[in-house]
Inverse folding.
């Protein structure tokens, strides 16, 4: 199956890229708020694979990142 | 409204992070294939904002990246 892991900086933590995007777009006149920039990992996995385990063990730093798994 | 822009390396182009993830997880015994690593930008925008325009003009490099917009 196809899965997607979205990894975002935790609420309240520094997100310089998100801040840069917010400032750039606001300065260009777009009405946007609180852009956040994170990572996305898409992969094709066997049904037996434990995605939560992969995310926690290898892909996400829980101190500074939160994540969400989406299956297609 | 809340929107999400997913920006992935184009098919066939070098994706060193995706390759690293594929190799790491495969070496750990997980049955996964073709991981791709991209960026995700989430933001709160006014309904008047043209997301496609923002993506094309400021956020995506069309030479090496493809993107997808998702609205919530």
């Amino acid at each position: 199956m196809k899965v997607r892991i979205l990894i975002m900086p935790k609420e309240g933590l520094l997100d310089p890229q998100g801040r840069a995007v917010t400032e750039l777009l606001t300065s260009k006149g777009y009405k946007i708020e609180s852009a956040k920039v994170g990572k996305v990992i898409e992969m094709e996995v066997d049904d037996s694979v434990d995605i939560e385990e992969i995310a926690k063990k290898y892909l996400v730093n829980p101190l500074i990142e939160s994540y969400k798994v989406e299956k297609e």
